[in-house]
């Protein structure tokens, strides 16, 4: 099992990223050359299945779970003629191999996979796989100091629009929530609410509260099924920390002993403040989960 590490990026990381090799519609090209046609349905109507992944110690974190979710999303959106999970696994491996020097220099990298139905009238989907740099200073700061959360009145879309189990690029609601939150603190994340006003998630994180040593997170149907949360749940079981799922109202969220944040880029971190409430420090449950995640996170 890989131990998550954070290594500082070199000063020229952004320029190296532009020169990195990416997969686009069956070809290996420079990342900077990726271009989505204005006639692509992904641009015209925002129909895009996406997965954002990362490496820990140069191993892709929970790749099978990410690919399973990606294929579920693509299938629901009707994006056909995609490679199967085995082929995507090969492409991810080749992506890292082709960019081995940059990966070695940066230590760890982010990976983005996306697909659209392609151009209107075309039978071929648009597929891309490319690297992203990781902001290790921000990651370290969030793990040490937490992140402010601002509860907004931006609501999640109903399942009749599209199920929340899908990871798509239609993220206007997340953007609006974060824009609202940024008025209060630069690094704040906006918390979206459900139709009944209960807490759901942020643009980058699944959320959970801690009450008397027990973890409570929103119902599965209220949020995207986060890969990192699934791993944290398994760690909690091994640590004999109770975990249940139910609707969480705003008042309960405010008064929780701890608020946990879980997402791909940072792993696990905590809420340092909720709205204009008192500043929060790392809690005992968070520290236990963070330490076990750092030592026991599965890799592939």
UniProtKB/TrEMBL annotation:
Keywords per UniProt: Aminotransferase, Transferase
Domain of life: Bacteria
Enzyme Commission numbers on file: 2.6.1.21
One Pfam assignment: Aminotran_4
A biological process from GO: carboxylic acid biosynthetic process
GO molecular function terms listed in the Swiss-Prot or TrEMBL record: D-alanine-2-oxoglutarate aminotransferase activity
Membership in a protein family: Belongs to the class-IV pyridoxal-phosphate-dependent aminotransferase family.
Name by which UniProt lists this protein: D-alanine aminotransferase
